[in-house]
Specification:
With about 210 residues, the chain is of the alpha+beta class. It has helices at about 15-25, 45-55, 60-70, 70-80; strands at about 85-90, 95-100, 105-115, 120, 125-130, 135-140, 165-170, 175-185, 195-205. The protein has two domains: about 10-80, no CATH class; about 85-205, Immunoglobulin-like (Sandwich), CATH 2.60.40.
Length: about 210
């Protein structure tokens, strides 16, 4: 067992101790090879729900405690026990069909919401992407707290993607119409995302 994974290691919070003791007995370090997968019939989701129910800080605190002894553990714990958010596109609420004059881009309003453990997820954790035929892909809006590979810039510009306006146009290979599949991803603190999708069809028109 990791030495940092103790009651003292998570700040000695009395409300966490019973759950942490059960967690240690059953899961060890969350499947990190310390004590095996736990008792039969106990699912990871059930333990994740229990951890979240104790306090919203419990999982993050436990991850930090594990990370003190093994930095790689923090991400593993969070990924397994933080609930995946529920993403919902509210605008457009149903498949959308618009006219594109001479195939020119059209301005479209988008809006969505995310819920994690019954709490609203900030729009800084939203990412919107449009996918078209032939592998076409267009990023519409990326929140400033969305995880991304590579180095992190020293200066991060705040961006909330709960609602915004973006342009979508017809693809060069399409003659009569283009259909985009717009995907909303809502990320939790561990980088796991819940998704929702909606179609946007553009019909070519000429005057």
């Amino acid at each position: 067992m990791h030495g940092a994974f103790t009651d003292a290691g998570v700040g000695g919070a009395s409300s966490l101790r019973p759950v942490l003791r059960r967690f240690r007995r059953t899961w060890g370090a969350a499947g990190l090879g310390c004590e095996g997968p736990g008792s039969p019939g106990t699912s990871r989701n059930a333990w994740g729900d229990e951890m979240t129910a104790v306090t919203g800080i419990a999982v993050a605190t436990m991850a930090a405690a594990l990370g003190a002894g093994d930095p790689a553990s923090a991400g593993t714990i969070k990924a397994q026990f933080l609930p995946v958010p529920t993403a919902t596109i509210t605008t457009p609420a149903s498949p959308l069909t618009l006219q594109s004059l001479h195939g020119k881009p059209v301005k479209i309003s988008f809006a969505g919401k995310g819920v994690e453990a019954k709490k609203a997820v900030p729009g800084t954790r939203f990412r919107w992407t449009a996918y078209g035929t032939g592998g076409a892909k267009k990023t519409l809006c990326t929140g400033s707290s969305v995880p991304h590979p590579g180095p992190v810039d020293d200066l991060t510009i705040y961006r909330d993607c709960r609602s915004f306006t973006a342009e979508l146009g017809m693809l060069p290979q399409d003659v009569a119409s283009t259909t985009w599949w717009v995907v909303l991803e809502v990320f939790n603190g561990a980088g796991a995302a819940g998704t929702d999708g909606q179609s946007v069809k553009l019909d070519y028109v000429a005057l």
